[in-house]
């Protein structure tokens, strides 16, 4: 579309941000468009109905009405249904684009956009609209000419006798000639060729035509056949114009002559040219489209197959034209389902699975619409589809990256918790036992000459207990540190679980007897596991120590073996102690959310025992969990791989 044509085009820009689009509007005005900006949906509809608008550039979100509703109302109104609507939006979802086309939009522009690209799209749609107007105008002129021709026929029938004969022969310019010599002409001939009647009578009819018509005219003269000939007529001023000549032999004044009806077909040639240009333009758009465009007839045979479709499917056009569309689907079932939905709804938009020539399956986003002829009868279906293989791949990669990021975040959180807990132990849990140990040692050193034996024994026992707790903390801390740094090797071997349980029962028997607690080993003789012996013993030791610590006098601690399932054996350590509140159970085995409690005899924990148990069990491929009720006791379960027979 040329710049001077642009000056006659009016673009209505409806947006919720007039200031934001003002620079773009100025750019369009500079390129020759007349641009009006409105910021209300109702105002846009009213203006479009009252004033001539060549194109509407429409925001999806507007005050009053959204863009989809505005477009739907305009397309429903006869006076505005012809206006092309281009949507503007920052929404990139395919469903929003599809909805825009469903309500009648011709294009969908994603913000932010390049001015040149949008101008190119606007120019394209204005050009298409201009061609439509021209075709409509030419059609109206054609109707007017047809009406004029009918009026001329009526006039000829009412004219004198000589013109009655001419009216019977033709609807346009008429020449009566005898072997080329003009005998009579009608007034239309005078108008067509610019000659007066007297200038034509007696002259050779061939003088009115271009040389290439001579053979056809002479053939009409020399034979009795009535032929239809096309060529170029020559007006008196030398200008040429396309004509159509039809001849007929008739009696005239007692002899047989030839009557030639000459029609000016300039309007038809122009319409044919415009139609051809429109078809070429539409063909160019179809072939240049990045989307696959395929049309089928009512028998589902492929009629159109554009270049993009050929590139994606791997077929040449002549390989598929005339074939059933089902050959392009991954399965006959889906092909039949698409056919059923089209018959039911007339259009659809959905994801389908297609098949390339080489047999490869790939996903596509299909938008299909039924095609109707001038009488409203269905003559086919047009489908526009896009290969979304890369989109699917990108979505999968994005999901994988998202999951990986979640996993990394969880790992980072756990590492941060480990770091925080490590510093807490160094700054607090390790400092306090040393303070107690040093305090008792200092008290004993300063007063050893003054204290009696009983007082000294008491302080020595307290020093021993404090040193024991400190040693346990250091031992757990060193073990945990080795695990975190990957320095603790897991060397699995077949283990007899009852023997390991017995060793730990013997170790903690004095402590249990001191608190009057029954410590029982009920692990079955045949119970075995395939695990690292040192790690498993550490787990037993920590869990038995905790069970004794939180069980009051007269209670019991039981070590037992449970069932075997899926290659794992379950070990159970149950006590009748104080139990754990339900809300605290999820925190027990987490480093970043620990639960601490003083034992029934005032014992203090190291803060790492259960965390070590979890990590050591997991290093050996097992899992650990706990069940507990306040006042009823706690039961710890962990699993290990069963040793091969």
TrEMBL record:
Entry keyword Phosphoprotein: yes
SUPFAM superfamilies reported for this sequence: ATPase domain of HSP90 chaperone/DNA topoisomerase II/histidine kinase, CheY-like, Homodimeric domain of signal transducing histidine kinase, PYP-like sensor domain (PAS domain)
List of residues that carry 4-aspartylphosphate: 59
Xref: Gene3D superfamilies: 1.10.287.130, 3.40.50.2300, Histidine kinase-like ATPase, C-terminal domain (3.30.565.10), PAS domain (3.30.450.20)
Domain Histidine kinase: 425-644
Record flagged with keyword Cytoplasm: no
EC category name: transferase
Gene Ontology cellular component terms for the protein in this record: plasma membrane
InterPro entries in UniProt: CheY-like_superfamily (IPR011006), HATPase_C_sf (IPR036890), HATPase_dom (IPR003594), His_kinase_dom (IPR005467), HisK_dim/P_dom (IPR003661), HisK_dim/P_sf (IPR036097), PAC (IPR001610), PAS (IPR000014)
Protein name: histidine kinase
Annotated source species: Candidatus Moduliflexus flocculans
Lineage of producing organism: Bacteria, Candidatus Moduliflexota, Candidatus Moduliflexia, Candidatus Moduliflexales, Candidatus Moduliflexaceae
């Amino acid at each position: 579309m040329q710049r001077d044509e642009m000056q006659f085009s009016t673009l209505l820009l409806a947006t919720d941000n007039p200031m934001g689009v003002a620079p773009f509007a100025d750019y369009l005005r500079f390129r020759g468009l007349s641009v009006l900006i409105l910021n209300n949906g109702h105002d846009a509809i009213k203006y479009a109905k009252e004033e001539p608008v060549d194109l509407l550039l429409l925001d999806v979100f507007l005050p009053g009405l959204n863009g989809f509703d505005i477009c739907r109302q305009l397309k429903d109104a006869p006076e505005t249904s012809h206006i092309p609507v281009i949507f503007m939006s920052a929404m990139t979802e395919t469903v929003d684009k599809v909805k825009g086309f469903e309500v009648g939009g011709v294009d969908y522009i994603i913000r932010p956009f390049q001015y040149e690209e949008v101008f190119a799209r606007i120019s394209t749609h204005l050009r298409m609209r201009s061609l439509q107007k021209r075709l409509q105008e030419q059609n109206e002129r054609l109707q007017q000419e047809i009406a004029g021709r009918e009026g001329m026929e009526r006039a000829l029938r009412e004219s004198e006798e000589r013109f009655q004969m001419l009216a019977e022969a033709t609807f346009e310019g008429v020449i009566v000639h005898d072997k080329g010599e003009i005998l009579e002409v009608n007034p239309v001939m005078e108008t067509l060729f610019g000659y007066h009647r007297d200038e034509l009578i007696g002259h050779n009819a061939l003088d009115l035509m271009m040389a290439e018509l001579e053979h056809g005219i002479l053939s009409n003269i020399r034979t009795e056949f009535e032929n239809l000939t096309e060529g170029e007529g020559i007006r008196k001023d030398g200008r040429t114009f396309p004509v159509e000549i039809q001849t007929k032999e008739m009696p005239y004044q007692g002899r047989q002559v030839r009557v030639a009806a000459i029609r000016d077909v300039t309007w038809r040639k122009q319409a044919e040219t415009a139609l051809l240009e429109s078809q070429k333009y539409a063909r160019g758009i179809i072939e240049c489209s990045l989307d696959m465009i395929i049309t089928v007839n009512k028998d589902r045979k492929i009629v159109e197959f554009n270049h993009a479709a050929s590139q994606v499917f791997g077929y040449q056009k002549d390989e598929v034209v005339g074939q059933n569309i089902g050959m392009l689907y991954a399965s006959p079932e889906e092909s039949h389902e698409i056919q059923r939905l089209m018959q039911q709804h007339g259009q659809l938009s959905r994801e389908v699975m297609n098949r390339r020539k080489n047999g490869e399956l790939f996903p596509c986003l299909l938008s299909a619409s039924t095609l109707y002829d001038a009488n409203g009868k269905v003559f086919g279906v047009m489908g526009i589809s896009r290969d979304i293989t890369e989109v699917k791949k990108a979505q999968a990669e994005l999901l994988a990256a998202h999951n990986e990021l979640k996993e990394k975040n969880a790992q980072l959180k756990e590492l941060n918790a480990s770091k925080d807990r490590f510093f807490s132990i160094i700054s607090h849990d390790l400092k306090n036992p040393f303070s107690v140990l040093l305090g008792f040692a200092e008290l004993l050193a300063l007063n050893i000459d003054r204290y009696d034996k009983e007082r000294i024994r008491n302080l020595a026992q307290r020093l021993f207990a404090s040193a024991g707790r400190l040693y346990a903390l250091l031992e757990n801390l060193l073990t945990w540190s080795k695990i975190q740094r990957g320095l603790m090797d897991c060397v699995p071997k077949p283990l007899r679980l009852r023997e390991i349980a017995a060793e730990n029962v013997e170790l903690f028997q004095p402590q249990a007897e001191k608190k009057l607690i029954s410590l029982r080993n009920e692990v079955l003789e045949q119970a075995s596991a395939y695990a690292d012996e040192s790690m498993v013993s550490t787990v037993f030791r920590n869990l038995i120590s905790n069970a004794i610590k939180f069980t009051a006098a007269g209670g019991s601690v039981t070590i037992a073996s449970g069932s075997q399932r899926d290659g794992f054996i379950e070990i159970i350590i149950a006590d009748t102690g104080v139990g754990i509140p339900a809300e605290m159970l999820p925190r027990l085995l987490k480093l970043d959310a620990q639960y601490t409690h003083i034992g029934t005899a005032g014992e203090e924990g190291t803060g790492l025992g259960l965390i070590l148990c979890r990590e050591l069990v997991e290093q050996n491929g097992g899992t650990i969990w706990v069940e507990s009720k306040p006042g009823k006791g706690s039961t710890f379960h962990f699993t290990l791989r069963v040793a091969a027979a």
